[in-house]
Design goal:
The protein has 1030 residues and is of the alpha+beta class. The protein has a six-stranded mixed β-sheet with strand order 11-21-22-23-24-20. A five-stranded mixed β-sheet has the order 10-12-13-14-15, with no helix packed on it. Helix 6 (750-845) packs antiparallel against helix 7. Its EC number is 2.7.13.3.
């Protein structure tokens, strides 16, 4: 072999290896073995279930992969081989219930709703088929390629296609069954059974370089030749058995063809032909003995199952990062400018250009730019003539197109911070302290930068729109009218470091990115500040790139965010939830840290590529071609634990009040960036629904799992609402609800409340009764005490009243006695004294007869005085001593005679006739002294009111009483005196309208007689004294 030939071979292999490595570098690679999650390193089948979980069959059970963690299911028997599972297939019955795996003991294992359990129902349902369904040592189930071993298959070969339909091949004839009926058959003898694979409703066979398609309808089975289209069309390697291999899984309805180190994805195209797409090249399938392939077309993610090396996951990077070293340059990018339609010039002087032939990116250097810009690479401008404007500290430089020479330079009074090329071809220059300068292009002789406005705080952004110059500074945002220079400071952004602006075409929306303060929108004179992401990465937003699909792309120090513009506008209107989608290094960046404080921050080429500066290269991508991998799969209840004891996961759980902790772990299948998962929850009484303010965020604690911990709950029924944002706009939320029942303690049950209420009422009633009784007893005691005290007081009052009455009576008695003595004693005695003096004179004169007569008169007067005194003395004794009157029998006739005799002998004053008509034998039992007083006073009173009249006394005897009448025919007493005498009031408070005589009669009468009455006659007066039975 010549040296030239050897060199050529070595160079070709080196170039091929470099090309393969370059292709694989477009993928983010993950490798899983027993060291990081798998139970065993042999992965035979890879299938996705209805929830989005990936299922792997291994020698040690089924493995569920949620995108972050593996969960092993291996409880399918007690033998070692019960966990050995070679394949995962479909449920062939008319109504599918998930997926089915078969272990080495030929037991069916059902995969459904995120779980895998042994199932015997499928065997029973398959016993009535018109052919022998493969089982242990009977037939062979066609559901995967390549075959895992070299053991010949047993006929028949059965390929289920779902919904009760089957293809059956016996090395001679291919038959088609639908709903247990044979629908057609075709002779197809001696074909290799490992050439069959199904896609959709057709069965294909590849053999001897020919592709055959079998289609079935309700009428008959037919076949026709087919060809490969697309990337495999006409590829001669298809006929090389050593280079060709089919990967097929019936459950995933996916077929792949490997040609050497390239993998093609096969789909059904027009007329039943098969389209092919190259999805992977440069991968050594033989080295890792790949036995299973699954392709997520939307995410461009390839799952490769190795017979010896576990699981490999290759995800195509959505972004490309360009970082080519040149002399005196670094890979920390800031300012960049578009250089034509296919090139970008960075402030380091590096040009990246898309090759028009191979669409590869090539790089070159403009040394003069590299040499000139060695300080603060935040801005570089290429004007319409291709000239390059750049800066270094206070120096503004103009380099010719192509970078061959320095055309001009100027020194400004302050350090230059930003350069901006306006739509009117003006170069605007922002400075650290001196404000804004401007210079027109193309440059004319003698032109120099002139100050437009200043001084200003450090200028961080300049943008011209609709007659205004918008100026971002480290101290807020200004809007300057170009024509007048009038400056308006935007309220709400004071003391905020403005990074960049994104102004809509009509100028109605001004989007503001800031350092440390996040994203703002100025619209309709209203400033809206948007919430940050969970990790607060959006606090430092560098700039905004708007694509043609309505998305904003926002680079930060922690990755690149994508957000739907309409979502932001909706939030500005009524505060809806926001979904921020984060891209990180796994998507193709060399560094998650993008750079800001540069103008322009992003550049878009004619090819549609967007270029963003980062701390390690320029990140290029076409935003319209990127489909965000959003977490739109359902929420699954992964586990429920009560006091660390695992409960059966379901839609309901019981949690008693004396238990300490309820842990609910939720899970969702998601293979993207974990930061894009946003769970929230709300706990409400059953029957009520949460308002937006009730939702609380849940931190994703591990992988794709979210944990909710509830420590205590009061009795009752609750509903735990869990939701997850599914992505942008109308994708909305996924929800999951769990009913939580908290049984009451025995003392919180309705029967206890009822019993307690009854007891409470009874106790209350008893307490009230006892209280009432006690109050009554106390009241009775008090009443007794009051009665005793009242009786004592009454007795005292009576005693006092009696004492008072006695005193008053005595005083009145004294008064009356004094008046009587003055009238009945003193006056007569005075008269007696005067008459005695006259008598003496008569004696001296010898008028003895007259003197004797006067002497008789004096005697009679003295007798009357004596009788009056005796009466008054008896009355006084009665009143003062209040003794019980002593009764005795008295002759009423004699008593009357004595009294009349006293008044009849002295008739010169009142010459009246006294008639005693009382029988001489009339006797009464009474108090004689008191009766004498009464009779004396009555006759005395009659004598006073009668002149020359008759005063008589008579009686009327009745069986039970005796009435004594004392009657006169004088002028009579007054009606007032009659009314007073007849009244029953014996009170002495009022003075009587008479002398003491009638007073004594009225007071003494009750002690002497049964009754006494006074009557007025015409003329005269009659007094009637009624005595008791005599």
């Amino acid at each position: 072999m010549s040296l030239l030939t050897l060199t050529t071979i070595i160079l070709s292999r080196a170039l091929a290896q470099q090309r393969d490595e370059s292709h694989l570098s477009r993928f983010h690679s993950e490798h899983f073995t027993v060291g990081n999650g798998l139970p065993q390193n042999s992965v035979y089948s890879i299938v996705r279930d209805e929830l989005g979980f990936m299922w792997l069959s291994t020698e040690r059970g089924l493995v569920r992969y949620d995108g972050k963690e593996f969960t092993v299911f291996d409880n399918f028997g007690n033998t070692y081989t019960s966990g050995s599972i070679r394949n995962i297939g479909i449920d062939p019955r008319p109504t599918a219930r998930g997926l089915y795996a078969i272990n080495n003991e030929h037991r069916f294992i059902r995969i459904y709703q995120g779980s895998a359990v042994a199932d015997t129902s499928l065997v029973k349902d398959l016993t009535g088929l018109p052919f022998t369904y493969p089982s242990q040592y009977k037939g062979h189930l066609l559901e995967r390629l390549p075959k895992l071993d070299d053991i010949p298959g047993l006929t028949p070969y059965v390929a289920p296609i779902g919904q009760g339909r089957y293809f059956v091949y016996d090395q001679k004839t291919l038959r088609y069954y639908d709903n247990n009926q044979l629908k057609g058959h075709l002779a197809f003898p001696n074909k290799h059974p490992w050439g069959f694979f199904r896609l959709d409703n057709s069965l294909y066979h590849w053999g001897s370089g020919r592709l055959t398609r079998f289609t079935a309808s309700s009428e008959r089975l037919k076949y026709e030749p087919a060809v490969f289209k697309g990337a495999l069309a006409g590829n001669p390697s298809l006929k090389d058995p050593g280079a060709f291999e089919i990967f097929w899984n019936n459950a995933s309805n996916q077929t792949f063809i490997r040609l050497n180190q390239s993998l093609y994805y096969i789909t059904v195209g027009e007329n039943g032909n098969l389209d092919s797409k190259l999805i992977l090249e440069g991968f050594n399938f033989s080295k890792d003995i790949i036995r299973a392939v699954y392709y997520d077309q939307k995410a461009e993610r390839i799952f490769l199952g190795s017979h010896i090396n576990g699981l490999l996951v290759l995800t195509r990077k959505k972004f490309a990062t360009h970082a080519v070293p040149f002399p005196d340059t670094d890979q920390v990018y800031y300012g960049q400018a578009r250089l034509g339609n296919r090139s970008i010039l960075s402030s380091q002087g590096i040009v990246y250009e898309i090759d028009s032939v191979g669409q590869r990116v090539v790089a070159r250097q403009i040394p003069l730019v590299t040499k000139s810009v060695t300080w603060d690479k935040t801005s570089i401008v290429v004007d319409a003539n291709g000239d390059i404007w750049c800066k270094k500290q206070k120096r503004l430089m103009l380099i010719s197109a192509g970078g061959s020479k320095m055309k001009a330079s100027w020194n400004l009074p302050s350090e230059i911070t930003q350069l901006y090329y306006g739509p009117d071809a003006t170069i605007w220059i922002g400075t650290l302290t001196a404000g804004i300068f401007q210079i027109k292009t193309p440059l004319k002789a003698g032109n120099t930068p002139t100050q437009f406005i200043g001084p200003l705080p450090e200028v961080s952004w300049i943008q011209q729109a609709a007659g205004f110059l918008w100026i971002g500074t480290v101290d807020g945002l200004l809007r300057v009218e170009k024509a007048t220079g009038k400056v308006i400071r935007i309220k709400g952004l004071n003391d905020i470091y403005v990074r960049s602006l994104h102004i809509s075409t009509d100028g109605s929306e001004v989007w503001v990115t800031t350092y440390k303060s996040g994203l703002f929108l100025l619209k309709d004179l209203k400033l809206t500040r948007f919430p940050l992401d969970r990790e607060r990465y959006l606090a430092n937003t560098h700039c905004i790139v708007e694509d043609r699909n309505g998305f904003f792309w926002i680079p930060t120090n922690h990755g690149l965010f994508q957000v739907l513009k309409n979502d932001l506008l909706s939030y500005a209107r009524h505060g809806s939830r926001l979904y921020y989608h984060l891209y990180s290094r796994e998507d193709g960046f060399n560094s998650d840290e993008f750079n800001g404080r540069c103008e322009p921050c992003a550049v878009r080429l004619g090819s549609g590529h967007v270029s963003l500066p980062s701390m390690d290269g320029l990140v290029w991508y076409k935003p319209e071609t990127i489909a965000a991998e959003v977490p739109d799969r359902p929420i699954v209840i992964n586990s429920i634990q009560v006091d660390r004891h695992i409960q059966q996961a379901g839609q309901a759980v019981s949690f008693s009040q004396n238990q300490k902790e309820l842990r609910i772990e939720l899970l969702t299948p998601f293979f993207g960036n974990q930061n894009n998962l946003q769970f929230s929850y709300a706990l409400r009484k059953k029957g009520s629904f949460p308002a937006e303010a009730d939702w609380l965020p849940i931190e994703v604690v591990s992988g794709n799992k979210a944990l909710i911990t509830i420590l205590t709950l009061g009795k009752g029924n609750y509903t735990l609402f869990v939701r997850k944002m599914n992505g942008f706009g109308q994708q909305g939320f996924s929800y999951k609800t769990i009913d939580i029942s908290v049984p009451p303690f025995w003392y919180q049950t309705w029967w206890f409340y009822s019993l307690a209420s009854i007891l409470l009422i009874a106790v209350a009633a008893e307490l009230i009764r006892n209280r009432v009784n006690r109050v009554r007893r106390v009241n009775l005691a008090l009443e007794k005490q009051v009665n005793v005290r009242t009786a004592q007081l009454r007795t005292t009052l009576r005693d006092l009243q009696k004492s008072q009455d006695s005193i008053i009576s005595q005083m009145r008695l004294q008064s009356r006695l004094m008046a009587s003595i003055a009238h009945d004693v003193r006056s007569p005695l005075g008269a007696v004294i005067a008459v005695a003096a006259e008598q003496q004179k008569m004696i001296d004169k010898g008028q003895h007869k007259m003197a004797f007569s006067v002497s008789k008169d004096i005697e009679e007067s003295i007798k009357q005085v004596k009788a009056s005194l005796e009466e008054m003395l008896a009355y006084a004794k009665f009143r003062i001593y209040d003794h019980e009157p002593q009764t005795e029998i008295v002759n009423l006739n004699q008593l009357i005679d004595e009294t009349m005799l006293l008044y009849g002998n002295n008739s010169r004053i009142h010459p009246n006739t006294f008639v005693n008509q009382v029988p001489s034998d009339t006797l009464v039992t009474t108090n004689v002294p008191l009766l004498k007083i009464i009779v004396h006073n009555l006759i005395d009173n009659a004598n006073k009111f009668t002149d020359n009249g008759v005063i008589k006394a008579y009686v009327l005897s009745q069986p039970d009483s005796l009435r004594l009448y004392i009657e006169d025919n004088g002028r009579g007493i007054s009606q007032e005196l009659v009314m007073w005498f007849e009244s029953e009031d014996r009170s002495e408070k009022e003075e009587p309208p008479t002398g003491i005589g009638l007073v004594m009669v009225k007071e003494l009468a009750p002690s002497v007689v049964k009754s006494i009455r006074i009557e007025r006659l015409s003329p005269g007066t009659r007094l009637t004294l009624t005595f008791h039975n005599h």
